[in-house]
Amino acid sequence: MSGKLLAPDFESDIRRLRACARSQRSLSADRKNAKLRELAEALVRESARVLAANAEDLARLPATQPAAFRDRLTLNEQRIAGMAESLRQVAALPDPVGEIVEQKILANGLKVRRVRAPLGVIFMVFESRPNVITEAFSLAYKSGNVILLRGGSESRATADVIYELMQKTLGEPPPFLGVRDYDRDVVAALLQRKDLIDITVPRGGEALIDFVQRTALMPIIKNDRGLCHTYVDDEADVDMAVKIVHNAKVQRPGVCNALETLLVHEKVASTFLPKLYATTESVGLQWHVDPVSNQVLKGLARVQPASEKDWDTEYLDLILNCRVVKNLDEALQHIERYGSKHSEAIVTANETKARRFQDEVDAAAVYWNASTRFTDGFELGLGGELGVSTQKLHVRGPVGLRELTTPRWIVDGRGQIR
Amino acid sequence: MSGKLLAPDFESDIRRLRACARSQRSLSADRKNAKLRELAEALVRESARVLAANAEDLARLPATQPAAFRDRLTLNEQRIAGMAESLRQVAALPDPVGEIVEQKILANGLKVRRVRAPLGVIFMVFESRPNVITEAFSLAYKSGNVILLRGGSESRATADVIYELMQKTLGEPPPFLGVRDYDRDVVAALLQRKDLIDITVPRGGEALIDFVQRTALMPIIKNDRGLCHTYVDDEADVDMAVKIVHNAKVQRPGVCNALETLLVHEKVASTFLPKLYATTESVGLQWHVDPVSNQVLKGLARVQPASEKDWDTEYLDLILNCRVVKNLDEALQHIERYGSKHSEAIVTANETKARRFQDEVDAAAVYWNASTRFTDGFELGLGGELGVSTQKLHVRGPVGLRELTTPRWIVDGRGQIR
């Protein structure tokens, strides 16, 4: 226990949550879907209260916080409508619980099935975005799990109202528990309790992920950084490459599947880079470039030499690293060294090179002639995501409903023994 | 790094192993199968050398070590033949690498496939059994991974000879590394290196598992304890129940899928328990019983009252806990409280009760009218196992070839952007 203890009342609450996990396992899809739709209605109906609480949180936020932080914390009618819509979408997805992954009859007559079952108690530790509450809850609930939610203290008033709406909608015993104690020691104590929590999902900055990884005794699903590359080959369609790279970098730079480092074959650098530069000028993209790219782009605004540290930096901002490489091998080596195993892309007309890139790059998602921005639960048809996993255990890429379950073995016999 | 550092030479060795992981990912099944068969031949051909080294290890073993420990360390011609046969069996299994788990074309025309890929570098920490070396290696190798092996110092001479045979057979660079430094700090230092190791698999006693769980920064697949129950219902075929319980407890009591606690419906206790007792008398089974069972079995040899601690004890020995329950609910509650989520069984002729038991018991494998001893990679048709997982992430139950891979996303586009 490392000296950190949970308050007895709080421990009882979690034990009740754990007991609730048992009944959740066999809840019908209809019942779960109806509750998710009710919650969507409640959110919209009570949006004025949610927004009032959110205004309170925003008023308390120090002016020194960056605009991006304030933006993540902010709700408005449109964002609440988005939260409700997302709940309805999860309600419309197939229920993974009970799905038969494999079935066979063994030589000894045993009938064996592998059937998907919920993970149990999921502990979600997240930072400021209040819409994570309903998103994470809906995925956990629909997949037959219960969830313990611990957000950032900045959003406490907003979270309290949302927890209250969830509690009213879902009845007793509620299949979730919102942690209202914002002391970090509480998280540390919970991370020791593998007897109470089956799995922890940290979602936030590197410091949070690192803390959870070092402290947790139960398995975690990590939503780690995305240091994504796109390699533009000498056999690339240059216009397609401009469109893909522009999209991957500029459309939404603050997310994990956005591009950070561009690798360009030396044969196309002088045609491709100026074209790309022209399309990114209006958005004020900053370029951190290697010496060869610098030759091509020299004298242009917002172009500066890249440092060694840059290749290893996830900017999540309108900054692009750019390096010219001799060939595919050099691109592969660069990605092997600096990639975060999230999403990587090649733009080329040569299928042989594309397949080699897809085979050899060890990432959750590897694209040929498409933007890395597609690594997303909705985009890939999972209907939503609890995050994007960059670990190799359990799930690589978006964590959807199915990924919140595991197959277990159900075996029917007629008295078989060994 | 917690102050523990790896020796520079050793760190270079592991970096070479990691580099080797890249080429292993695309190795053909034919090549891997040929090497596994060659290794089987080498083991048999060089068995005299292996046995001489093993005799050296056994001679060094303190006489105070329990017989079971000595037995696990011991090799003989028959066990070496078994190791070779197991290598041939793994060679005969389908290669999971490249298996397409799912494929679809999205509305935007993106062609999406989920393709199985190796985990990468597997760190296997195990105790005395030297046959784990070839078993774990073969599964890791066949599934496209590389493996770092660290056994117990008791088997160091045996391990050295086996590592040498593996090295000769597999050539350079070898897709494995045997750790010959038996200082526990080396394991601790390795468990911090998530940059070098993708996943750790501890296999051994509770102290080892606990140490790895508290120290490792990378994901682990835990081979934890099996505190398995069998519930004999009032609608059970009593003779079938005797056969199943006898097998689950007696056939090989030292393994994790063996029975520890028997739960019996009160209506059949007086007929079932004496019959079972009669079949277990010759093997000297010790009974730890609750007061009601004690009424039925009183005065018989080797029957003693169970303590509260007994219900929570994995004996791995010829000792059986026995408790009479009022009904299925009480059995379910007992298993919920004391079970280790490994293997649980119900014996009944009533399908409704069997299905309820299978639905509500949260274990990796749940049996109806069969022995818990079937929770095993070979028995369930996986061809082998690296262990049996009692965690809920990634895999529940036997860890076979497929479980040493994870699907990743391979996406083909024609210039799609978001």
Task: Give a quick summary of the entry.
2 copies of one chain form a homodimer. Chain A is α/β, with parallel strands linked by helices and 418 residues long.
Explain the overall architecture.
Two copies of one chain form a homodimer. With 418 residues, chain A is of the alpha/beta class. Chain A has two domains: 3-121 and 130-183 and 386-412, Aldehyde Dehydrogenase, Chain A, domain 1 (3-Layer(aba) Sandwich); 228-374, Aldehyde Dehydrogenase, Chain A, domain 2 (3-Layer(aba) Sandwich). Chain A contains 14 helices and 16 strands. Chain A has helices spanning 8-24, 29-45, 47-60, 67-73, 77-92, 131-142, 156-170, 184-191, 206-215, 238-250, 269-280, 291-297, 328-338, 351-360, and strands at 100-105, 111-118, 121-126, 146-150, 176-178, 199-203, 228-232, 259-265, 286-289, 303-305, 319-325, 343-347, 365-370, 388-389, 397-398, 405-416. Chain A has a seven-stranded parallel sheet, with helices on both faces. Chain A has a four-stranded parallel sheet with strand order 5-4-3-6, sandwiched between helices. The first copy, chain A, has a three-stranded antiparallel sheet with strand order 1-2-16, with no helix packed on it. In chain A, helix 10 (238-250) links the parallel strand 7 and strand 8 (259-265). The two termini of chain A are 41 Å apart. Strand 13 of chain A pairs parallel with strand 16 (405-416) of chain B.
